[in-house]
Amino acid sequence: MSDILIVDDEEDIRALIADILRDEGHETREASDADGALAQIALASPALIILDIWLQGSRMDGIEVLKAVKRDNADIPVVIISGHGNIEIAVAAIKQGAYDFVEKPFNTDQLLVVVGRAIEANRLRRENATLRARDAAEADMIGGSSAIAALNAKIQRVAKTQSRVLLSGPPGSGKEVAARRIHALSERARHPFVVANAAAIEPNRMEEVLFGRVMEDGRVVQGLFERAHRGVLFIDEVGEMPTGTQSKILRVLTDNAFTRPGGGDVVRVDVRVLSATNRDLAVEIAAGRFREDLFHRL
Question: Has residue 173 got a pLDDT over 80?
Fold first, then answer.
Protein backbone atom coordinates (compact mmCIF):
# COMPACT_ATOMS: atom_id res chain seq x y z
CA MET A 1 0.00 0.00 0.00
CA SER A 2 1.84 3.10 1.25
CA ASP A 3 5.47 3.74 2.16
CA ILE A 4 5.54 5.23 5.69
CA LEU A 5 8.61 6.62 7.46
CA ILE A 6 8.63 6.22 11.27
CA VAL A 7 10.94 8.59 13.16
CA ASP A 8 11.37 7.97 16.90
CA ASP A 9 14.40 7.72 19.17
CA GLU A 10 12.89 4.68 20.96
CA GLU A 11 13.48 1.43 19.07
CA ASP A 12 10.54 -0.31 20.79
CA ILE A 13 8.13 2.41 19.68
CA ARG A 14 9.41 2.28 16.09
CA ALA A 15 9.03 -1.51 16.04
CA LEU A 16 5.52 -1.35 17.52
CA ILE A 17 4.28 1.21 14.99
CA ALA A 18 5.97 -0.66 12.13
CA ASP A 19 4.26 -3.92 13.15
CA ILE A 20 0.85 -2.21 13.33
CA LEU A 21 1.28 -0.61 9.91
CA ARG A 22 2.69 -3.72 8.22
CA ASP A 23 -0.30 -5.69 9.49
CA GLU A 24 -2.43 -3.22 7.52
CA GLY A 25 -0.37 -3.81 4.37
CA HIS A 26 1.84 -0.73 4.50
CA GLU A 27 5.57 -0.70 3.86
CA THR A 28 7.65 0.99 6.55
CA ARG A 29 11.05 2.58 7.00
CA GLU A 30 12.59 3.71 10.26
CA ALA A 31 14.93 6.42 11.54
CA SER A 32 16.05 7.17 15.08
CA ASP A 33 17.11 10.80 14.65
CA ALA A 34 16.84 13.87 12.42
CA ASP A 35 19.80 13.04 10.19
CA GLY A 36 18.51 9.52 9.56
CA ALA A 37 15.03 10.86 8.79
CA LEU A 38 16.27 13.47 6.32
CA ALA A 39 18.51 10.87 4.65
CA GLN A 40 15.54 8.53 4.19
CA ILE A 41 13.45 11.35 2.72
CA ALA A 42 16.27 12.25 0.31
CA LEU A 43 16.49 8.59 -0.72
CA ALA A 44 12.79 8.46 -1.63
CA SER A 45 9.83 10.59 -0.54
CA PRO A 46 7.51 8.58 1.73
CA ALA A 47 3.74 8.76 1.48
CA LEU A 48 3.58 9.72 5.17
CA ILE A 49 5.93 10.52 8.07
CA ILE A 50 5.13 9.57 11.67
CA LEU A 51 7.41 11.81 13.71
CA ASP A 52 8.21 11.89 17.43
CA ILE A 53 8.37 15.43 18.72
CA TRP A 54 11.33 15.07 21.11
CA LEU A 55 13.97 12.83 19.43
CA GLN A 56 16.39 12.70 22.35
CA GLY A 57 20.06 12.85 21.36
CA SER A 58 19.17 14.12 17.88
CA ARG A 59 20.69 17.19 16.22
CA MET A 60 17.15 18.51 15.63
CA ASP A 61 13.93 17.94 17.55
CA GLY A 62 10.67 16.89 15.90
CA ILE A 63 9.40 20.44 15.33
CA GLU A 64 12.66 21.35 13.59
CA VAL A 65 12.45 18.23 11.41
CA LEU A 66 8.83 19.11 10.63
CA LYS A 67 9.91 22.60 9.53
CA ALA A 68 12.62 21.12 7.30
CA VAL A 69 10.16 18.68 5.72
CA LYS A 70 7.57 21.37 5.05
CA ARG A 71 10.26 23.66 3.64
CA ASP A 72 11.70 21.14 1.18
CA ASN A 73 8.93 18.53 0.75
CA ALA A 74 5.73 20.38 1.52
CA ASP A 75 3.53 17.71 -0.06
CA ILE A 76 4.50 14.95 2.44
CA PRO A 77 1.93 14.71 5.28
CA VAL A 78 3.40 14.47 8.79
CA VAL A 79 1.71 13.02 11.87
CA ILE A 80 3.36 14.09 15.13
CA ILE A 81 3.48 11.70 18.11
CA SER A 82 4.57 12.52 21.66
CA GLY A 83 4.59 11.01 25.11
CA HIS A 84 4.38 14.47 26.64
CA GLY A 85 1.32 15.69 24.82
CA ASN A 86 -0.43 18.91 25.66
CA ILE A 87 -2.54 21.35 23.74
CA GLU A 88 0.35 23.82 23.29
CA ILE A 89 2.56 21.21 21.62
CA ALA A 90 -0.28 20.02 19.40
CA VAL A 91 -1.13 23.57 18.32
CA ALA A 92 2.53 24.36 17.62
CA ALA A 93 2.85 21.24 15.45
CA ILE A 94 -0.32 22.00 13.48
CA LYS A 95 0.80 25.59 12.94
CA GLN A 96 4.03 24.33 11.42
CA GLY A 97 2.12 22.15 8.96
CA ALA A 98 1.61 18.79 10.71
CA TYR A 99 -1.47 16.90 9.54
CA ASP A 100 -2.39 15.74 13.05
CA PHE A 101 -1.07 14.98 16.55
CA VAL A 102 -1.29 11.64 18.41
CA GLU A 103 -0.38 11.31 22.08
CA LYS A 104 1.60 8.31 23.40
CA PRO A 105 0.66 5.75 24.58
CA PHE A 106 -1.64 5.71 21.58
CA ASN A 107 -4.63 3.56 20.81
CA THR A 108 -3.98 1.37 17.76
CA ASP A 109 -7.33 2.16 16.18
CA GLN A 110 -6.80 5.88 16.71
CA LEU A 111 -3.37 5.72 15.07
CA LEU A 112 -4.72 3.79 12.09
CA VAL A 113 -7.60 6.26 11.63
CA VAL A 114 -5.21 9.24 11.60
CA VAL A 115 -2.80 7.47 9.25
CA GLY A 116 -5.62 6.50 6.90
CA ARG A 117 -7.04 10.03 6.81
CA ALA A 118 -3.63 11.58 6.18
CA ILE A 119 -2.84 9.23 3.30
CA GLU A 120 -6.31 9.66 1.80
CA ALA A 121 -6.15 13.46 2.03
CA ASN A 122 -2.79 13.44 0.29
CA ARG A 123 -4.07 11.03 -2.38
CA LEU A 124 -7.03 13.34 -3.10
CA ARG A 125 -4.72 16.34 -3.32
CA ARG A 126 -2.50 14.56 -5.86
CA GLU A 127 -5.54 13.35 -7.79
CA ASN A 128 -6.89 16.91 -7.99
CA ALA A 129 -3.53 18.11 -9.29
CA THR A 130 -3.56 15.35 -11.93
CA LEU A 131 -7.11 16.24 -13.01
CA ARG A 132 -6.20 19.92 -13.25
CA ALA A 133 -3.21 19.00 -15.38
CA ARG A 134 -5.41 16.84 -17.60
CA ASP A 135 -7.91 19.68 -18.05
CA ALA A 136 -5.05 22.00 -18.95
CA ALA A 137 -3.70 19.50 -21.46
CA GLU A 138 -7.08 19.40 -23.17
CA ALA A 139 -7.09 23.22 -23.46
CA ASP A 140 -5.00 23.18 -26.60
CA MET A 141 -4.30 26.13 -28.84
CA ILE A 142 -7.08 25.97 -31.46
CA GLY A 143 -6.53 26.95 -35.07
CA GLY A 144 -5.12 25.75 -38.35
CA SER A 145 -3.13 28.76 -39.46
CA SER A 146 0.62 28.71 -39.92
CA ALA A 147 0.95 31.14 -36.98
CA ILE A 148 -0.87 28.75 -34.62
CA ALA A 149 1.16 25.81 -35.93
CA ALA A 150 4.38 27.73 -35.28
CA LEU A 151 3.19 28.69 -31.77
CA ASN A 152 2.30 25.08 -30.92
CA ALA A 153 5.73 23.97 -32.13
CA LYS A 154 7.41 26.54 -29.86
CA ILE A 155 5.26 25.49 -26.90
CA GLN A 156 6.16 21.84 -27.38
CA ARG A 157 9.83 22.73 -27.66
CA VAL A 158 10.07 24.88 -24.51
CA ALA A 159 7.74 22.64 -22.47
CA LYS A 160 10.39 19.91 -22.23
CA THR A 161 12.95 22.29 -20.74
CA GLN A 162 13.13 23.88 -17.29
CA SER A 163 13.56 27.34 -18.82
CA ARG A 164 11.45 30.28 -17.74
CA VAL A 165 9.13 31.66 -20.40
CA LEU A 166 7.80 35.20 -20.83
CA LEU A 167 4.62 35.42 -22.92
CA SER A 168 3.55 38.75 -24.38
CA GLY A 169 0.43 39.82 -26.22
CA PRO A 170 -2.76 41.86 -25.89
CA PRO A 171 -5.51 40.92 -23.40
CA GLY A 172 -7.49 37.88 -24.51
CA SER A 173 -4.81 36.56 -26.84
CA GLY A 174 -4.45 33.27 -24.92
CA LYS A 175 -1.34 33.82 -22.82
CA GLU A 176 -2.66 31.77 -19.89
CA VAL A 177 -3.83 28.99 -22.23
CA ALA A 178 -0.31 28.83 -23.66
CA ALA A 179 1.19 28.76 -20.15
CA ARG A 180 -1.12 25.93 -19.09
CA ARG A 181 -0.20 24.04 -22.24
CA ILE A 182 3.52 24.41 -21.46
CA HIS A 183 2.87 23.06 -17.96
CA ALA A 184 0.75 20.15 -19.21
CA LEU A 185 3.45 19.01 -21.64
CA SER A 186 6.30 19.39 -19.14
CA GLU A 187 7.83 17.03 -16.58
CA ARG A 188 6.06 19.10 -13.90
CA ALA A 189 2.57 18.29 -15.20
CA ARG A 190 1.58 16.20 -12.16
CA HIS A 191 2.53 19.07 -9.83
CA PRO A 192 0.59 22.32 -9.23
CA PHE A 193 -0.06 25.09 -11.73
CA VAL A 194 -0.58 28.20 -9.59
CA VAL A 195 -1.71 31.56 -10.98
CA ALA A 196 -0.72 34.95 -9.56
CA ASN A 197 -2.47 37.83 -11.31
CA ALA A 198 -0.25 40.81 -10.46
CA ALA A 199 -2.85 43.26 -11.77
CA ALA A 200 -5.48 41.94 -9.36
CA ILE A 201 -3.34 41.93 -6.19
CA GLU A 202 -3.15 45.10 -4.11
CA PRO A 203 0.46 46.39 -4.21
CA ASN A 204 0.76 46.44 -0.40
CA ARG A 205 -0.27 42.75 -0.25
CA MET A 206 1.84 41.50 -3.16
CA GLU A 207 4.72 40.13 -1.07
CA GLU A 208 2.39 38.40 1.41
CA VAL A 209 0.43 36.75 -1.41
CA LEU A 210 3.58 35.51 -3.16
CA PHE A 211 5.76 34.61 -0.17
CA GLY A 212 3.28 34.01 2.66
CA ARG A 213 3.58 35.34 6.18
CA VAL A 214 4.51 34.28 9.70
CA MET A 215 1.72 35.55 11.95
CA GLU A 216 2.30 37.02 15.42
CA ASP A 217 1.10 33.78 17.05
CA GLY A 218 3.69 31.78 15.05
CA ARG A 219 1.20 30.39 12.55
CA VAL A 220 2.65 30.05 9.04
CA VAL A 221 0.55 31.10 6.03
CA GLN A 222 1.93 29.74 2.78
CA GLY A 223 2.29 31.99 -0.23
CA LEU A 224 1.87 31.13 -3.89
CA PHE A 225 5.53 30.22 -4.36
CA GLU A 226 5.25 27.47 -1.73
CA ARG A 227 1.96 26.24 -3.15
CA ALA A 228 3.64 25.91 -6.54
CA HIS A 229 6.56 23.84 -5.14
CA ARG A 230 7.77 21.35 -7.79
CA GLY A 231 5.28 22.80 -10.24
CA VAL A 232 4.71 26.07 -12.09
CA LEU A 233 3.92 29.58 -10.89
CA PHE A 234 2.30 31.63 -13.66
CA ILE A 235 2.66 35.37 -12.97
CA ASP A 236 0.10 37.09 -15.16
CA GLU A 237 0.52 40.80 -15.94
CA VAL A 238 4.04 40.73 -14.48
CA GLY A 239 4.56 44.31 -15.69
CA GLU A 240 2.12 45.49 -12.98
CA MET A 241 4.34 44.25 -10.17
CA PRO A 242 5.69 46.89 -7.72
CA THR A 243 9.44 47.50 -8.02
CA GLY A 244 10.03 46.42 -4.42
CA THR A 245 8.47 43.03 -5.10
CA GLN A 246 10.43 42.74 -8.35
CA SER A 247 13.71 42.65 -6.39
CA LYS A 248 12.42 39.81 -4.20
CA ILE A 249 11.22 37.87 -7.24
CA LEU A 250 14.69 38.30 -8.70
CA ARG A 251 16.22 36.76 -5.59
CA VAL A 252 13.90 33.74 -5.78
CA LEU A 253 14.81 33.22 -9.43
CA THR A 254 18.50 33.47 -8.54
CA ASP A 255 18.62 31.49 -5.28
CA ASN A 256 15.40 29.41 -5.32
CA ALA A 257 14.84 30.73 -1.80
CA PHE A 258 13.12 33.54 0.09
CA THR A 259 12.18 34.68 3.58
CA ARG A 260 8.53 35.03 4.54
CA PRO A 261 7.37 38.45 5.80
CA GLY A 262 7.25 38.32 9.58
CA GLY A 263 9.73 35.45 9.79
CA GLY A 264 13.44 34.75 9.57
CA ASP A 265 13.65 31.21 8.20
CA VAL A 266 14.87 30.75 4.64
CA VAL A 267 12.29 28.85 2.56
CA ARG A 268 13.64 26.87 -0.38
CA VAL A 269 11.41 26.12 -3.36
CA ASP A 270 11.64 24.32 -6.68
CA VAL A 271 9.38 26.34 -8.97
CA ARG A 272 9.36 26.98 -12.71
CA VAL A 273 8.16 30.53 -13.32
CA LEU A 274 6.14 31.39 -16.42
CA SER A 275 5.00 34.98 -16.83
CA ALA A 276 2.92 37.10 -19.14
CA THR A 277 2.39 40.76 -19.93
CA ASN A 278 0.43 42.99 -22.28
CA ARG A 279 2.90 45.83 -21.77
CA ASP A 280 6.02 46.67 -23.73
CA LEU A 281 8.56 45.86 -21.04
CA ALA A 282 11.35 47.62 -22.96
CA VAL A 283 9.39 50.86 -22.52
CA GLU A 284 8.76 50.05 -18.83
CA ILE A 285 12.49 49.43 -18.30
CA ALA A 286 13.40 52.74 -19.97
CA ALA A 287 10.89 54.52 -17.73
CA GLY A 288 12.36 52.89 -14.60
CA ARG A 289 9.21 50.96 -13.79
CA PHE A 290 10.58 47.47 -14.46
CA ARG A 291 13.95 45.98 -13.56
CA GLU A 292 16.08 45.08 -16.56
CA ASP A 293 17.85 42.28 -14.67
CA LEU A 294 14.46 40.72 -13.81
CA PHE A 295 13.40 40.99 -17.45
CA HIS A 296 16.43 38.96 -18.51
CA ARG A 297 15.77 36.37 -15.78
CA LEU A 298 12.18 35.94 -16.95
Answer: yes
